[in-house]
Amino acid sequence: MRSLIDVFYYLPAYICRRKFLPLVRKKDFPLTEKYVYLSTASIGLTPQPVIEYLKEYIGSLLSGGTVFLDEKEEENTFENLRKTASDLFNCSPYEVAVFSSVTESLASIAWALPKGGEIISTSIEFPSVVYLWLRIAPDKKWTVRLVDPDPSLLIEEDAVMEAVNEKTRAIVISHVEFLTGQRFDLKKLASRVHVTGGILIIDGIQAAGHIPVDVKAFGADVYISGSYKWLLGPMGSAVTYIRKDLVDDLNPGIVGWRSMQDIWNLELKIPLKYAPGARRFEYGTSAYEAKVGMWKSIEYLDIR
Description:
- By secondary structure, the protein is α/β, with parallel strands linked by helices.
- The chain is 37% helix and 12% strand.
- The protein is built from twelve helices and seven strands.
- It is globular.
- The chain starts with a helix and ends with a helix.
C-alpha cells in the first residue's frame, strides 16, 4: 500500500475515470519537493508543462497583438477548451459555454430563467452560490428557500426533496460541499425536481477533476466548474454544461459580441441573433490565456 505522501504525489493520476496515468509525475509539481500539499480544495497546483505552455502563449499574445491573435484565432480561442470540457462532462461541445468564473456563469444563467417561483438551496452552501439568487429574487419575484443541515452539518437529501413543490424553479446546490465534503446524489435530486418542471443547477468546482462527472447520468440541467482547484488550471476560467433542450430556450443574462451568431458582423442587429447552443452565453474579450490554460490542464489530466 502506498504511503499518504506517495498517494498525494500521484493524486492527479487517481482523478482519472478508468486508469492510472503514469505520465502524471512528481517533478511536474516542484512544490511537493518541499511540502505535502493538501490544499487543492482551495487552490490546485498547476503542472509545469501547462505553466510552460502558458508562458509561451502569453508571450506570443502580448508581443504579437493581432498578428498573433487574428480574427480566426480569436474566434476559435475557446474551441479546444469546449471540446475537452465536453469530454470531461460527457456531453456535446454544443452544450458547453466558457466563462471566467463559476459566479459569472451562475449569474448569467440566473438572469436567463423565467420570473416567479422558488429557488431551493441550502444554508451552508458556499456564499456565492446563494448570494446572486438573493440579489436577483426581488427582480424575478422568486422566493429563495434554504434547507438547513442536521446537527452534524450534513444536508439530508430527503429534506431538499421535500422542499420541492409545483412552484420550484430550480435546485441550486454543490456536487461536493465546500464545508463538509458531502457528496450529493444528483440523480436523485434531478428526478425529484424534474417532476415539477424545475431544473437542477450544480456547482461542480469541488468535484470536477477529483471524482468522475457524467452530466447525462446525473440528469443535471446545468453543471459548472472552475479551473483552479481539482482541474489544476489557472484562475480566470470556468466551463458550464447547459442541457441542449434547455439552452436554446434561454436568453443569456450577459450578452456581447461573442454571443452572436456571426461574431464579426459588428453592425447592430435588432432583434438579437444569438449563436446556437451554449456559445450564446459567451459575451466578450476576456483573459484568453486562462481559458487556454484550463484546456491544457484538462488535457494534462487526460480525463476521458
